[in-house]
Amino acid sequence: MSIYLTAILKSNKESIQDLKSILDNMVLNTRKEEACEKYELQHSLDDETVFIFHEIWKSKEGLDAHNQQPYIQEFVEKVPDLLENPAEIYLAKLV
Length: 95
Hints:
By secondary structure, this protein is of the alpha+beta class. The protein has helices at 16-30, 60-66, 70-78, and strands spanning 3-10, 36-43, 50-57, 88-92. It has a 4-stranded antiparallel beta sheet with strand order 2-3-1-4, covered by helices on one side. GO terms for molecular function: monooxygenase activity. This is Antibiotic biosynthesis monooxygenase.
């Protein structure tokens, strides 16, 4: 069963470019993962501090493997200091 993930991140105003750089690196590397069906990063038109990921994973195991990748671990370590609020993450299935 495919896993659909939406993540919403709100950067601190002074950290927008630092966050975008980390997110761009994640996109570049994640799209190479076998379990990744879709990995899109969007930047809000209304609020420059808001970034949104739309992801589709082949399986929960694939998503779990993704979360162990070094570039994701770097994200987990560095990004909390760049965010205004903790990231909002929603897991779903297609209905």
